[in-house]
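Quick illustration, no need to memorize.
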Amino acid sequence: MCDISLILPTYNERENIEMLIKRIFSSIPDVEVIIVDDDSPDRTWVAAESLRKKYPRIKVHRRVNQRGLTSAIQAGIDAAEGKSVGWLDCDLSMPPELFKRMSEHLQFAHLVVGSRYIPGGRDKRPFQRRVFSRIINSFGQFMLGTKTSDLTSGFILCRRSLIKNHRLKGAYGEYCIDLIFSAERSGFKVMEIPYRFIDRQQGKSKTCENILDLFILGSRYVALILKKFKEK
C-alpha cells in the first residue's frame, strides 16, 4: 500500500497533464496517481498512458459512457489503494507540491483542505469569479456554522477512514460543500492550509464562462447550503 493516492479527473487536459504528473512525482515519490478521463476529445488519456513508461505508478481509467467531475473523483476513490486519498484540478491552478505538507497535517486532522481564504492564501482569478466565490463561501460558512472558510476548494487530502464511508454527491463544487459539512458534523477534524490559486494558462475552463454560468452555479450552491442548514 502506498502512502498517498492522488486522483486526477480529466477532460481535455492534454496540454497540462504531463507537467502536472512531473510535478507530482518530483515532490511526492511514494504516490499512486489515478487519472480518470471522461473520453476527452483531445485524447488526454492517450497522453496519460504514454507517461506510464516513465511513471509506472500511474493508473489510467477512460470512461466512455459516463461524464462528470464528481463521479470521476468517486471512481478514483473506489480504485485508490493509498492510506490517504486526495484530488485536485488538472489545469495547474493548484500546486501539487502542497500535498506533501497536507500529508503532514493528516497526523492531526482527518481531512485537509487547500484554502484560498485563510491568511497566506490568495485567489488570482478574474475579479467577478473571485467575488462570486467569496460570497458563496462566506454565506456557506455562516449558514452552516463550519470552521472551514473554503468550502468549494476542490483541493483535498483525507484519511481513508473518512472517505471510505462517504459517497460524493452533487455537481461541481457542491460535492465539496457536502463532504466538508458532513465531515465536521460527524466529528472529523478538518484543517485548512493556504495556497495561491492561479487561473489556468492553457486549455479551456469547464465552468463559469460568463455571468449567466456564475448565476446558475451560484443558485445551486445556495440551494444546497439551505438544504444542509435544515439538516443541522
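The mean pLDDT is 92.
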